[in-house]
């Protein structure tokens, strides 16, 4: 079982380290490729396709077995990584990230479903904590590794390193995971998948293009908003008719699952802006290199690792709700503190703020995953796990798009004020010129008065966006209040030996 767990952890590590590395390297990538007004699509494209794949692969794994779809997912993830390394524009990189995301959509839910299949119940809390720690560890080492690669090799190698990690994961699962041949026959909710993803994509394009390339009341933007609303309405209707819906209303009738799923949505929406924009703040405001931005993220990620481990341990000691109430309150405090940053905020202050935020978010990595699958048998765990992952990814996708637009619009307003609405000294007059402040070499070419105005504008816009991040943090708190008093149940001593033997042979799926 140890080698199976190692393979799963490597797969999760590869998928999650990729996002943290991209976040750290984004300033350098934008400086090299341009497209500051489009860089959120590099992450959004990944999240959209990951979100689309999660419920589908989760159901397919329940129907036909976990192994084949995990192997398919890791193979596609490796292919997408190789393609990303060859990208020559932000648009190309976004397209290749979408391919990566499809593979990532298989890795996350299937890994957690296999975990629940092969690990005895009394060990699930600690093992979920370990999986949560892998999430955090990837966030811990990702920024450092990415920063080193960006500063000493080239940014495209941040994608190539996924190849050996992914291959190791693929081989371990392929050769050591033995699953049964009995699987639950179910139907794929293709209507639900297509309409929901279509609704999200239309909404993202409407928000991204509105007020920039098109006026908010223009025909293209109105059409996109209308299409999003219509597709979402069809999705809600389709879910009432589907025999195996993507988002099962019956699952949501279970109080613990419904509240945990909503909390995952809000945690995803609230956490992603910090991971994406703190490196931009460090490079664009403090003038740091990619290494600096990678190091400054360590407190956030290390705190989340610690909290994930503690959460897995506490799940068997107290109710999931008790853990998550404390988590949400700490998250709200961290979001508030980060919304106060200015160009004068010291690294020590920023470090303290990120430790608090990381502690608040880290519990959700392990505890919400366990709470979401609590009470479901093996035939439903893939669907429950994928639904939880799906909703977190949906929150991240919409959150990144919405908060990215908030920051971009605030930055445009600040730049207009700083330079009188026209070209300023040194020719700085558009968001595209922000790229000049994102690497030490290009900053040195800017006149000091111009650089100071850019720094003030960038800092103010990011802080303004972080104020709005407090909203999903508060909504997460409201969601966890309804989780009830359930906690991880351990079997009686007599049952443990029986389940341990089954676990040695890969469990039920």
Describe this structure in words.
This protein is mostly helical and 509 residues long. The protein has helices spanning 2-33, 40-64, 66-85, 90-118, 121-152, 157-160, 162-176, 190-209, 219-241, 249-252, 255-284, 290-296, 298-314, 320-338, 347-373, 378-418, 440-443, 448-480, 493-504. It is globular. It starts with a helix and ends in a 5-residue tail after the last helix. The model is unreliable at 422-429 and 493-509 (pLDDT under 50). It has 19 helices and no strands. 77% of the residues lie in helices and 0% in strands.
Mean pLDDT: 77
Query: How large is the radius of gyration?
Result: 22 Å
* Unreliable runs: 422-429, 493-509
Question: H/E order of the elements?
Answer: HHHHHHHHHHHHHHHHHHH
General form? globular
Put simply, the count of helices is 19
Which percent range describes the beta-strand content? under 5%
Let me know the largest β-sheet: none
In helices, the fraction of residues equals: over 70%
Spatial separation of the terminal alpha carbons:
14 Å
Going by helix content, strand content and strand pairing, the class is mainly alpha
How many beta-strand segments?
0
């Amino acid at each position: 079982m140890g080698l199976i767990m190692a393979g799963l952890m490597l797969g999760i590590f590869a998928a999650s380290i990729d996002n943290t590395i991209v976040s750290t390297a984004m300033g350098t990538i934008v400086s090299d490729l341009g497209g500051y007004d489009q860089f959120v699509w590099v992450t959004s494209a990944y999240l959209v396709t990951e979100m689309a794949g999660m419920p589908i692969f989760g159901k397919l794994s329940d129907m036909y077995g976990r192994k084949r779809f995990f192997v398919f997912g890791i193979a596609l993830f490796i292919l997408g990584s190789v393609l990303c390394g060859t990208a020559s524009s932000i648009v190309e990189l976004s397209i290749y990230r979408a391919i990566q995301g499809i593979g990532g959509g298989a890795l996350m839910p299937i890994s957690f479903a296999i975990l629940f299949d092969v690990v005895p119940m009394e060990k699930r809390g600690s093992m979920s904590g370990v999986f949560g720690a892998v999430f955090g560890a990837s966030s811990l080492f990702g920024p450092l590794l990415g920063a080193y690669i960006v500063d000493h090799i080239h940014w495209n190698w941040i994608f190539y390193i996924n190849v050996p990690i992914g291959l190791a994961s693929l081989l371990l699962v392929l050769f050591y995971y033995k699953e049964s041949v009995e699987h639950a026959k179910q139907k794929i909710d293709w209507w639900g998948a297509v309409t929901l993803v279509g609704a999200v994509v239309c909404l993202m394009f409407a928000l991204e293009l509105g007020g920039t390339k098109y006026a908010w009341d223009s025909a293209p933007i109105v059409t996109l908003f209308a299409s999003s609303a219509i597709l979402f309405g069809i999705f809600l209707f389709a879910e009432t008719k589907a025999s195996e819906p993507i988002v099962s209303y019956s699952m949501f009738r279970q109080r613990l699952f419904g509240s945990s799923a909503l909390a995952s949505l809000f945690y995803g929406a609230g956490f992603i802006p910090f991971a994406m924009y703190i490196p931009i703040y460090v490079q664009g405001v403090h003038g740091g290199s990619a290494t600096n931005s990678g190091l400054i993220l360590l407190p956030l990620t290390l705190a989340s690792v610690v909290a994930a481990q503690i959460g897995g341990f506490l799940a068997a000691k107290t109710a999931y709700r008790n853990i998550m109430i404390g988590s949400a309150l700490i998250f709200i405090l961290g979001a508030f503190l980060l919304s106060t940053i200015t160009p004068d905020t010291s690294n020590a202050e920023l470090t303290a703020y990120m430790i608090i935020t990381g502690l608040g978010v880290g519990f959700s990595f392990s505890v919400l995953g366990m709470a979401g699958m609590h009470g479901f048998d093996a035939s439903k765990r893939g669907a429950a796990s994928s639904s939880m992952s799906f909703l977190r990814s949906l929150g991240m996708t919409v959150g990144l798009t919405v908060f990215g637009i908030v920051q971009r619009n605030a930055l445009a307003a600040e730049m207009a004020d700083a330079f009188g609405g026209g070209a300023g000294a040194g020719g700085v007059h558009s968001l595209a010129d922000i790229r000049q402040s994102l690497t030490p070499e290009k900053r040195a070419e800017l006149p000091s008065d111009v650089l100071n105005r850019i720094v003030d504008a960038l800092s103010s816009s990011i802080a303004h966006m972080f104020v709005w991040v407090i909203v999903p943090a508060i909504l997460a708190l409201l969601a966890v209040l309804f989780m009830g008093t359930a906690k991880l149940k351990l079997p009686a001593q007599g049952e443990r030996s029986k389940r341990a033997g089954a676990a040695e042979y890969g469990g039920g799926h």
